[in-house]
Fold:
Amino acid sequence: MYGDYLVYVGIDQWKAGRLQGEFIGQLLGGKGNIVEIAGDPGCPAGKGRGGGLREVFSEKYPDIKILATYMAHYNKAEGMKAMEDAIAAYGNEINLVYGHNDAMALGALDALKAAGMTDIPVCGVDGQKEAYLEIMKGEQYKSTVINNSAEITAVAFDVLMQYLNTGNLPEGVSEGGKVITGTILVAKENVEKYYDPNSIF
Structure:
């Protein structure tokens, strides 16, 4: 999954994709065309964030079509360039943009605004502070999924220290297993609960 590791600590990437798939399906009323902006080919996070989305579309929203998937390496500037390419290729066919992280989605948002496409919704993943601010505006940026780096670090440290001190992992977790942190969809209705103005990320 992520190379050699004792335990995976982090969000459920597949669930993150499913949460956005359900949100997007409802937002679009079950039909429409989306542009997907992914990180790196074969990336485990991307497999979940894209795969979970597709699973929900297949199960419940077969009339939602992914026009194209662009790779932007989790980078805002590359996300903007990918969106510019998508606009050139698909123009008014685009009904929504889904980025596998908020940085790329925020770059896509900049490209959409520059093109005057201010009615196209954008969704991301990671719970980045700038994404929360956009969601709070109630405009184009509609949702993200929490990927709380501080929580993940704290949990990972606790797991590691327990293992070093006792030789045991948390109950129910085996070597190579998973400890899942909060995987929560954030939209306008609950964004203020999670927004921290003092957050670095």
In short: The chain has a mean pLDDT of 93. The chain has seven helices and eight strands. The CA atoms of residues 117 and 197 lie 28 Å apart. Strands lie at 8-10, 31-38, 63-71, 96-99, 122-123, 141-145, 178-180, 185-186.
